[in-house]
Amino acid sequence: MSQFPPPESPNSHATPAPPVVPASSAPVTDRFWAGFGVGCLVSFIAGAVLAAAASVAAMAAFGSLAAAVAQQQQATAPAAPADAPPAADTPRGKSNEAADADDAILRDEGAIQDALEEEDFDRAESLARALVARHPGDAECRALLQTVRVARAVAAEDVAGADRLLKEALEGSMDIDPGTELGVAELWLDEGEPERARIIADRVFERVSEDETGDDGYDHYIQGAALVLRGLARAELGDPPGAIADIEAALKLAPDPAAEKEWRQYLEEVREKAQ
Description:
By secondary structure, this protein is mostly helical. The chain has helices spanning 41-76, 91-117, 121-134, 139-155, 159-171, 178-190, 194-210, 216-236, 240-251, 257-274.
């Protein structure tokens, strides 16, 4: 497997993740996307870890800036009279309490992400369950637990289990990490179910394309991977023009020369298959 990292956010401090599409040393076969097999399942999960870690770093930086501003305001504020009544519980105080809770959640998420990066799914799920128990009303915490469950099934190549868990997430309006969703699509492609893979890849591509709040580098990484998967599925479904168009579009989003080289190989194989 070639080792190039997905694009890093300027605030990211995560360990570089492996590629979305691993190099294939096997010759081209009738299943010309064989190199897109199980090897890149962990890549999608690692990409999710990278994006989440970038968010943690960004939040930490914002928190430091906010603290500095608060200290400056306190230093320049006039002193209260000695006989002034005690300060009431103000919205600002409540915001600080909420910020402390958010920081605690971010620390827990970081530990879960570390466990996922190490492929320690038992620890990741245990930590995620504990996080949900502490914050049962938090939709993002519940989505994180479901993401861990799907990632575990993907890593085990349990396509039926991964698909069932993904459907549960969609029915519950959980915001599952898009890279983990693509892991399920890849399993279906490997199982000879290209239409199932196409549906998931298409949904992920549209979802990430419409999201204007994410990290641009990671979004492009996921969009490109979704297009490659969708293109390979279309090739299997007898739509070479659509497959070629998808992979050509993916090349424009390649985060790294090595990624571009890998994805271009798939494009050449699709073109050969279409002749």
